Amino acid sequence: MTVRDRQALIRPLVVALGFLVCGAVVASVALCWSVGWGWQDALETFVLTNCLMGASFGLCGAVIAWHRPANPIG
Q1: Which of 4, 18, 29, 50 has the fewest CB atoms found within 10 Å of its own CB?
Q2: What confidence category does residue 70 fall into, taking pLDDT thresholds of 50, 70 and 90?
Q3: Residue 56: what are its φ and ψ, rounded to 5°?
Q4: What pLDDT score does 74 carry?
Q5: Residues in CB range of 13: below 8 A, 6 or more apart
Q6: What are the helix (H) ranges across the chain?
Q7: What count of Cα atoms within 13 Å lies in the side-chain half-sphere of residue 52?
Q8: Are 56 and 46 contacting, i.e. CB atoms less than 8 angstroms apart?
Q9: CB 21 within 8 A of CB 54
Q10: DSSP state of 74
Q11: Residue 12 has pLDDT above 80, yes or no
């Protein structure tokens, strides 16, 4: 399998997983607001920090997987 073939297989998966990460962050924030939590409650229960970490890890992984599809880190 050539690098171009691998990129053609990996890139749609990267996009789908990127949307999944964004959806998880949005769902977490929406659920916090729906139960009436403020920023302090979300911070104390680590929802806010976990969302920020998940979004940043997902973004970094997507960039690596997009440009280097053979790299297992991405």
Answers
A1: 4
A2: confident
A3: -70, -40
A4: 67
A5: 65
A6: 3-34, 39-44, 47-67
A7: 5
A8: no
A9: yes
A10: -
A11: yes
Radius of gyration (Cα) for the chain, nearest Å?
Answer: 16
Sequence ranges of the domains in the chain: 3-67
**9 burial via Cβ count (<10 Å: 0-12, 13-18, 19+):** exposed
Q: Which residue, among 29, 18, 19, has the nearest Cα to 52 in the 3D structure?
A: 29
**Burial class of residue 3 (count of CB atoms within 10 Å of its CB; 0-12, 13-18, 19+):** exposed
Longest CA–CA span in the chain (Å) reads 52
For the whole model, what pTM was predicted? Answer: 0.75
Q: Please state, in angstroms and rounded to a whole number, the distance separating the CA atoms of residues 53 and 19.
A: 16
* Reported confidence tier of residue 63, pLDDT bands at 50, 70, 90: confident
